[in-house]
Amino acid sequence: MNDELELLREWDADAAPLTGQARDRARHQLLNAMAHADQRTGTSPGRRHVLRFAAAAVVATAVTGTAVLMGTDGSGEGSAPGTSSPRVEIAAATVLNGAAAWERKQEKEPVAPRDDQFIYSKRIIKETEQKTGKVKTYTDEMWDSVDVSKPSLSMELGREMWEEPAGKGGGVWPPRKWSELKRLPHDPEKLILAIISMGSRTDDRLVGDLDKTERFEAYWLLGELLKNPVLPEGLRPAAYEALAVVPGVKTIPGVKDSAGRTGVGIAHTGRGSSEDKYLIFDPSSYEFLGFRDERISASGKRKYVQLSHVVDWGIVDRVKQRP
After folding, report:
1. CB atoms < 10 A from the CB of 190, how many?
2. CA-to-CA distance for 264 and 287, rounded, in angstroms?
3. DSSP states of 27-43 as a string?
4. What is the Cα–Cα distance from 314 to 26, expressed in whole angstroms?
5. Phi and psi at residue 250, in whole multiples of 5°?
6. How far, in whole angstroms, is CA 265 from its chain's centroid?
7. Rounded CA gap, 88 and 19, in Å?
8. Cα–Cα distance, 170 to 173 (Å, whole number)
9. pLDDT by residue (tens digit) across 242-280?
10. Could you tell me if 4 and 31 are in contact, meaning their C-beta atoms sit under 8 angstroms apart?
11. pLDDT digit string (tens) for 16-48?
């Protein structure tokens, strides 16, 4: 496949509703595309746009096809619930629960954005080519339509990209509408199951019952939720606590963030390499410091390490307006 949109080429608006099993396969296939979106460059859509298409398609259950899923052992088969399931690492749970406690001490109920407004954010990305050690720093800004009814503008590595308004019933993950964010539960296990189902069904399972793909899906979607600069009071610490109970999370000590600070990484073992993407926290206070990611050039010959953190955000009335 040349890009993630290949997954949507089989769209059929007149198709009969998918069965639960087929819907799960479609959701997992889209997750697999999202997880590898960083390896696409050039004209391919950024990961944030793939997330938009994926969320809308999954909720509408309008995507067909089957998925090839890779488990943590590379076998391509998910383990049955309760068998050989990765345990939650104590050290990772300590960091994440510590981050939740730190956040609760700092946070205040933010001003809720109106549906007709935009969420502005500015982040710094420090990108290092692994082979040469050459470093480039980018300042990316984003103006995201809260109710996705207006065109949004974002930058990815200095390039401006417009996001068209979502159609009827469309959406994004994480949601930007305050009413949708307020509906997300603050109980860690309930939050995990809510984002796994994405509104397509009521999920009454336990987190321990999730298969390998769903565990990584929970880790991935919670991480994307935490990238949202404005969340209702209590939801960010709840997301940290939810990550703490996702089986397969692990710590990576002695990592650096984009400001050169030493921290501890929180990664997931559900991919072939769990050390290429992770969240970074202060090892003492557990304050969240930023993200680490990797991307591969279109030629496949160059690999880049990306360190990023948000430096400013606000709520504005129009694109290119700053707080």
Report:
1. 15
2. 10
3. HHHHHHHHHTGGG--TT
4. 35
5. -145, 160
6. 16
7. 32
8. 11
9. 999 999 999 999 999 998 999 999 999 876 555 688 999
10. no
11. 444 444 444 444 444 444 444 443 443 334 444
